[in-house]
Structures are given as structure tokens and as C-alpha cells.
Amino acid sequence: MDSSVMRNTDGKRRPLGLRLRLTLSYVIIFTILLAAVGALFRQQLKSSLYHNTTLILDEEAAAVKGYLQIERNVPVWKYDPKDTEESFIVQRLRRIFLLTGGDGRVLEVSDAYNSLGVEPKKELQSMLAAGKPVWRVRKGDKGISYLVRSAVLTDDGGRKFLLTIGRTLDVNEKLLNQFTRYYFTIVPLFLLASSALGWLMAGRGLSPLNDVARAAQLVTGE
Question: Given a cut of 70, is residue 17 above it in pLDDT?
């Protein structure tokens, strides 16, 4: 059956009823609205998760200064190995970690950061000269995304180093995927409800016209 016509009982084709066309229009508009709202909320959630991750990395970069000392260009981590909490914090800070000297020479790099690939020396020197934190999203060898923060670290002697730490964005991506999956699972239910509501509203809105049409049919040719 053509989408724009229906058949009478005598086989002749006639346009779709006004009520049905109004209902379809309502459903289409509601579908576009739901899709736009879903995309907007997803983008807002993504931005919020990204912002929270940047705040965490800022805090962790500050925490590094409390545990890391650089002695004769050799990084030394000062903490109590017997303290479970301190050990966990330092291990977390060193998981995605890169430290270079003021000339861009690598002083310490973690295995996890090696999987991302250490940047060329010229790029490291460029980040040293930036004067402010440099943020990047990088992918590991397993396709997992990481948010990486690079900033200048100055020791007590005034020497500059480049400190780079990062966090996985895997949790953020899982939350976004869950939101998308749940949202578009519920959307068909909303569309079904909107179809029923649109049908009722169209019927109520056309009721006066139907009354006029019935009255017109009672009028004779005279």
C-alpha cells in the first residue's frame, strides 16, 4: 500500500485520513525532538565527565610534588612503602607517568605510558616552552583512550622538568555508551505513547470538523 493513500471498499484509492496524517506528523516531530534532546544530554554528559577527569589530573599533578624529589636529575619517590594508602597513591601516580629534563631527555617513564608512545624530543621541548598545561587524548595499543596532562615542574633549585600524567577514559566511554543504549531503548516506548496521544489529540481536534461534515451530508441539493 502506498504511504500516502488508502483503498476504499470498492477498490478505489483515496488520500490518507486527515487524522492519520496529523498523527504521523506529531510522531515525526516528537521523534526529531527526542533525538535532539538525547544528543544534547549525551554531549553535556561527555563534557561533564571530561571536566571531572581534568580536575582529578590537576589534583594528582599537585600530589606528585609531595612524593617526588629529583636528586641530580634522578627522580626519587619519597613515601612509606609500609603505608598501604601511600603505596596505592604513588602506584596510581606512576601508572601513566613521564618525566623529562629541561632539555626533553626522558628521566622516567612508566610501562603504560610507553604503550602510548613517548613523544619526539622536539614535541617534548615544545610542551616545556608552552608555560601552561597541555592536554591531549591519546590511544593505547589496545585502543583504549587516555587523557594526558603535561606541565612544567620546577624543583627547589629552579630547574624545570616536564611532568606528564594521565588517566584512562574507558570508564567515561562506558558511561556514555550505557546512557546511549538506555536512552534509545526507552525512546520507542515514548514514540508508542506519543502515537496514541497524537491519535487522541487529532481526533479531538477534528471533532468539530466531523460534525460540520455530517451536517453537510444532511443538507439536500435544494
Answer: yes
Cα separations in angstroms, 6 against 1, 2, 23, 35: 7, 7, 16, 30
25-34, long-range: CB within 8 Å, 24+ apart, which pairs?
A: 26/194, 26/195, 26/197, 26/198, 26/201, 26/202, 27/191, 27/194, 27/195, 27/198, 30/190, 30/191, 30/194, 30/198, 31/187, 31/191, 34/187, 34/190, 34/191
Q: Name the one residue in this structure whose C-alpha cell is 617513564.
A: 109
CA-closest candidate to residue 17, choices 30, 5, 9, 29: 5
What is the bridge-based pairing of β-strands 106-109 and 97-100? antiparallel
Q: In this predicted structure, what is the pLDDT of residue 211?
A: 59
- The yes-or-no verdict on residue 156 having pLDDT over 90 is no
| DSSP one-letter code for 8 | -
Is residue 65 within 8 A of residue 77, CB to CB? The reply is no
44-77 pLDDT per residue, tens: 999 999 999 999 999 999 999 899 998 888 899 9
